[in-house]
Amino acid sequence: QAQTSGKHHLYFDSALNAEVADKLVLEEELRQALETRQFAVHLQPKVSLRDGAIVSAEALLRWNHPTRGLVSPASFIPLAEDTGLIVPIGEWVLRTVCAQEADWLKQGLRTVPVGVNLSAVQFRETRVLELVQDALATVGLAPGYLELELTESLIMQDPAEAVRILNALRALGVRLSMDDFGTGYSSLAQLKRFPFDALKIDRAFIIDIVHNPEDAAIASAIITMARRLGLTVVAEGVETVEQLCELRAAGCDEMQGYLFSRPVPLEEFAAMLRAGK
Ligand code: C2E
Ligand code: CA
Ligand code: CA
Ligand code: CA
């Protein structure tokens, strides 16, 4: 008996060591990825439910790992946040998006606003306002082409400070989106203190919208209330025509999801814009 538990103990210990070692390797790889330009930004369109036009996009980080191929951000963003590496990585995403938008406008392409995800760590540890101002000014991009996507948990860590920074960003002319709405604990009533332009309903509420009347009721209530508060409502993760119909009937403004397009490389997104206009 004692021997078995000893074995278990050993097993868990080495599993734990392996996990720590994996993390160290990953951390070192993340640093190299930044230096050797292994990251890319992909864009996923957000589409108007009124006329199907591409009205904006979301920037999603992609890691082209030399041996492991395309690595999903879900698997490395938590570590990037733990190690603080999200700060330079996030800055790179922001500057890359601003530079691309400015370049497209210079080429005469009628581009749309692009949303960049902001991590709570970035928000806490950097002067976000100064960073955004500098990213825009460096390439001469009008602030209306930039949108920032922030989660409830980010703004609720220090709501008073968040209100101050978000008001300043909004005064600059940057658009603000509440991301993953419904997964945290804040209510729409609390959110009205924040100067958001748009609210994104998390995919968790969209998945079963067609077959689960409760999810449909929640989504519909969020849409109605958010619209009455003057917010543009975006449904995340729309994959089927049935979901689309349900959302349209509920009065949702925009959708983002595989039904219309997966996130695509920058050049492919430019081609989508050219084809649509
Ligand atoms: P998110 O901000 O909620 O982004 C939406 C995620 O849903 C993306 O996953 C997108 O590819 C995926 N998605 C879009 N449409 C569909 C659909 O129809 N079905 C399904 N199943 N999924 C869909 P992705 O690209 O893997 O990103 C995961 C998360 O990683 C993001 O969730 C965001 O929290 C984070 N992330 C991505 N890029 C960045 C970044 O540049 N900075 C920061 N801080 N976080 C990022
Ligand atoms: Ca997002
Ligand atoms: Ca989201
Ligand atoms: Ca999400």
Automatic annotation (TrEMBL):
Kindly list any coiled-coil regions of this protein. Answer: none
Q: Taking every annotated instance into account, which residue ranges of this chain make up the domain EAL?
A: 23-277
Protein known as: cyclic-guanylate-specific phosphodiesterase
State the organism named in the record. Answer: Thiocystis violascens (strain ATCC 17096 / DSM 198 / 6111) (Chromatium violascens)
Q: What is the lineage of its organism?
A: Bacteria, Pseudomonadati, Pseudomonadota, Gammaproteobacteria, Chromatiales
* Part of the full-length chain shown: 823 to 1099 of 1110
